[in-house]
Design brief:
Layout lengths: L2 E12 L2 E12 L3 E5 L6 H8 L7 E6 L2 E2 L4 H7 E4 L11 H11 L4 H14 L15 H12 L6 E5 L7 H16 L3 E5 L3 H4 L4 E6 L2 E6 L1 H6 L4 E7 L2 H9 L6 E5 L2 E6 L2 H14 L4 E7 L3 H15 L1
């Protein structure tokens, strides 16, 4: 499959802080690629460079064969970019916002009415076209922002954490739209802090300290995880977590909801040690089991190992 986004040793610093550090990446045509990482990992800076909004200090990148520096104007015609805070005009209606962006992107006048009608239907905003943007819910604002970015039929869509602050139903609706766009051949580059959304991507790149530390399909990343995850319920999960972290045979321990997840190299060997040490320290155990690792377990472990390595 053809690669539509090619990044070679892309680097960007702000003062003494290296936001993106010799980043290399390939994104295939007509796929959804997820850039996943903690706050400050370099996701937004990477996206802004790819959209030719800021220049790299070194390295190169191409979008559909166009260079982000020398062909920046061509790239801007081919992309839609939705930052974390997309600038909708709150005193304009949904319809007026779409008309305004159609003018900005110079959509031919004989195509505008048909395109706007299609996008209103596509984003389920037909019944809300008369409302002011400021009157919309968070989810509807994001769908309107996406529709404004689609007004010029971009080949590439860059979305920086598009579902932050959006309710679960609206998140699901937004992803339904992304899947439909993918079916139409749009290449989508999205960042998200939500692990369930990361698993919906065709490929993901885990980014930490401005570098890609793992890139593959979500299923392959989980399959390659060789550690064992223990699920434990105790009489005091917070006390239990702090105690576990102090034990030299425990690689990591963290809370996921009401569960305490423990990372070890071997379940059978470490289960007995945990039960013995908990008993000696008067920490009760309600339940302890081996569980299949979730994508969140794998992500937390990979990022922690990278931090420990540095």
């Amino acid at each position: 499959m053809k690669c539509e986004i090619e990044i070679n040793s892309l680097t960007k610093s702000f003062g003494d802080i290296t936001a993106v550090d010799h980043l290399d990446l390939r994104v295939k045509s007509g796929t959804i690629f997820g850039l996943i990482g903690p706050d400050g990992a370099g996701k937004t800076t990477t996206m802004r460079m790819l959209c030719s909004l800021i220049s790299p200090d070194s390295g190169t990148a191409k979008i559909g064969g166009n260079d982000i520096i020398t062909d920046s104007e061509k790239i801007k015609l081919d992309i839609g970019y939705m930052p974390q805070r997309f600038s909708l005009y709150g005193d304009l209606t949904v319809l007026e916002n779409l008309i305004f962006y159609a003018e900005i992107y110079q959509v031919p006048k004989n195509e505008r009415e048909k395109k706007i009608s299609y996008l209103l239907k596509f984003s389920n905003l037909e019944r809300h076209s008369y409302k002011l943007a400021d009157q919309l819910s968070g989810g509807m604002k994001q769908k309107l922002a996406l529709a404004c970015n689609l007004i010029h039929t971009p080949k590439y869509l860059f979305l920086d954490e598009p579902t932050i602050g959006v309710d679960p139903v609206a998140r699901r609706e937004l992803w339904k739209i992304l899947f439909e766009l993918k079916e139409k051949g749009v290449t989508i580059f999205v960042s998200t802090p939500y692990m369930d959304e990361a698993e919906r991507c065709d490929e993901i790149g885990l980014i930490s300290n401005g570098r890609i530390i793992k890139k593959d399909t979500p299923n392959k990343i989980i399959k390659d995880f060789t550690k064992h995850i223990i699920s434990l319920y105790s009489t005091d999960n917070y006390k239990a977590k702090d105690f576990l972290i102090s034990l030299d045979y425990i690689e990591d321990a963290y809370l996921l909801g009401e569960e305490l997840h423990i990372v070890v190299d071997n379940y059978e060997d470490k289960k007995g040690k945990i039960m013995r040490d908990f008993k000696e320290n008067n920490i009760g155990i309600y339940d302890i089991n081996l569980v299949n690792p979730s994508f969140e377990d794998v992500f937390v472990n990979i990022v922690k190992n990278e931090k420990d390595r540095l």
